[in-house]
């Protein structure tokens, strides 16, 4: 049995797999701002699975990475994990080896293995939800990088800034104008509030846009142009066959038509036609389960 756990900013999801078959699943609220409670939740989930299904390997996806220099969590938008020895603590509590990887890397692995990008050479897997991250899979293997940060797309500046986008909102990382501050769910909510004075969730904004609300349409169009520019910069560097979207924002249907219609403006290879860009933008096959499945697959 393989156990996969995805520690998100608002929820912890877990799955137990027998081969590729899902035999158990659980989802609990993340104990925000409480490292010890988060650790307890992970250990409790593993114990509950193993009481009913036997022992298994444990893989964990986190919204950050483990520093190869210190063994501590770094670059996590779940900031209460930063600087904590999560891998060491989980292994100590469970009494066995555990594997931890960036949640977006887990997501990319899942979709490249048996999901929306199965069988292609280069996959860029994007999670747009509470934060904005990405992972890279090449020929079915995750690219980690020398510093463990390959795919940290959300903490580059939004390219080709327009209008009032520079210097951009302050990010938790300490810089202004990160892609995450524009494309995350809270980023869309904040943008909509700046322009309308109304604080609404992305799903509410998207529904209002579908009904023809002019302010919501304007917010969605700004968002789509920003995503198109941000992904065009990835296409210019990585040239992926497929870009897979996951996370809460991936549920907005209009993105899959409108973003590729726009990105050719900034893709170097394009000559003005959308058909010049062969990269496909697709929704994750495994939806909310993709990251947690990828965490389980950390053990091969």
What is the rounded Rg? Answer: 19 Å
Unreliable segments of 5+ consecutive residues: none
Q: Do you know the CATH architecture of the largest domain?
A: 2-Layer Sandwich
The helix tally amounts to 9
Number of domains: 2
Judging from the principal axes of the Cα atoms, what is the shape?
Answer: globular
Helix content: 25-40%
Look at the helices and sheets and give the structural class: alpha/beta
* SSE order, one letter for each helix or strand: EEEHEEEHEHEEEHHHHEHEH
Number of strands: 12
What CATH first level of the largest domain would be assigned? Alpha Beta
Strand order of the largest sheet: 3-2-1-4-7
The biggest beta sheet is recorded as:
5 strands, mixed
CATH superfamily of the largest domain: ATPase, nucleotide binding domain
Mean pLDDT: 93
Describe what you observe in this structure.
The chain is an alpha/beta fold and 300 residues long. The protein has 2 domains: 2-105 and 289-299, Nucleotidyltransferase, domain 5, CATH 3.30.420; 118-284, 2-Layer Sandwich (Nucleotidyltransferase, domain 5), CATH 3.30.420.40. It has 9 helices and 12 strands. Strands 3-2-1-4-7 form a 5-stranded mixed sheet. The chain has a 5-stranded mixed sheet with strand order 10-9-8-11-12, sandwiched between helices. Strands 5-6 form a two-stranded antiparallel ribbon. Helix 5 (185-196) crosses helix 7 (214-238), helix 6 (202-210) crosses helix 7 (214-238) and helix 7 packs across helix 8. The mean pLDDT is 93.
């Amino acid at each position: 049995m393989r156990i996969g756990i995805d520690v998100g900013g608002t929820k912890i999801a877990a799955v137990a797999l027998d081969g590729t078959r899902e035999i158990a699943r659980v989802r609990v609220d993340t104990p925000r701002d409480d490292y010890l409670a988060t650790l307890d939740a992970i250990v409790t989930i593993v114990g509950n699975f193993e009481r009913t299904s036997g022992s298994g390997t444990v893989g964990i996806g986190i919204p950050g990475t483990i520093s190869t220099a210190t063994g501590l969590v770094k670059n996590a938008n779940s900031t209460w994990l930063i600087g904590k020895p999560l891998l060491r603590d989980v292994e100590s509590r469970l009494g066995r080896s555990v594997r931890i990887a960036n949640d977006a890397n887990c997501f990319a692995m899942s979709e490249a293995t048996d999901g929306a990008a199965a069988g292609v050479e280069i996959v860029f897997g994007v999670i747009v939800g509470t934060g904005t991250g990405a992972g890279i899979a090449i020929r079915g293997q995750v690219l980690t990088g020398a510093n463990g940060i390959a795919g940290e797309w959300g903490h580059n500046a939004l390219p080709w800034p327009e209008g009032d986008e520079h210097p951009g909102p302050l990010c938790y990382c300490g810089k202004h104008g990160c892609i995450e501050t524009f494309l995350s769910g809270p980023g869309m909510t904040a943008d909509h509030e700046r322009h309308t004075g109304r604080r609404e969730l992305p799903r509410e904004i998207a529904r209002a846009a579908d009904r023809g609300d002019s302010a919501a349409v304007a917010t969605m169009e700004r968002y789509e142009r920003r995503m198109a520019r941000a992904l065009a910069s990835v296409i210019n560097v990585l040239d992926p066959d497929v870009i897979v979207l996951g996370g809460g924002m991936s549920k907005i249907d209009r993105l899959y038509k409108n973003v590729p219609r726009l990105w050719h403006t900034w893709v170097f290879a394009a000559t003005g036609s959308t058909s010049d860009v062969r990269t496909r933008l697709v929704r994750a096959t495994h939806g909310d389960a993709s990251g947690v499945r990828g965490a389980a697959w950390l053990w091969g």
